[in-house]
Write a structure and sequence with these properties.
By secondary structure, this protein is mostly beta strands. 11% of the residues lie in helices and 31% in strands. The radius of gyration is 18 Å and the shape is globular. It holds the Pfam family SspB.
Length: 131
């Protein structure tokens, strides 16, 4: 299967964006289950949830603002207990996206593949030598 090739970028962010768009277009409430144990240094959630194994977020337009599902990270603003928080985590930490109303979900482990570390394309400094 081509997903296991090391040079193929992960498909997960594309599947996540497509499902989200489908859910919102059909007036469903998209919910995502997020693993909080992997990539801990790249996760920003309210402090009271930091030690949980996972969390479920309502990412509908009514529940969160400034949602951005990028190729590497998910970012949005939400309120917890009346307090505003900026939420940030790697796309690869999303385990499932599901609609609250119809319980139709899409597990993200169908799309294996890790983030590909981008190659450093900056020009190398020239090395001078005596002639």
């Amino acid at each position: 299967m081509f997903f296991n090739k090391p040079d193929v970028p992960p498909f997960t962010p594309y599947a996540l964006r497509a499902y989200y768009e489908w859910a919102v277009d059909n007036s469903y409430t998209p919910m995502i289950q997020v693993d909080l144990q992997s990539n801990k240094d790249e996760i920003n959630v309210p402090a009271k949830f930091e030690n949980d194994k996972e969390i479920v977020f309502n990412i509908s337009p009514e529940a969160c603002g400034n949602l951005e599902i990028g190729n590497e990270y998910v970012d949005f603003d939400a309120r917890f207990g009346g307090q505003a928080h900026h939420i940030h985590f790697p796309v690869e930490n999303v385990k499932l996206i599901v609609c609250r109303e119809c319980q139709f979900g899409l597990p993200m482990d169908l799309f294996p593949g890790k983030r590909i570390k981008k190659k450093d394309t900056r020009p190398k400094k020239p090395v001078f030598s005596e002639v």
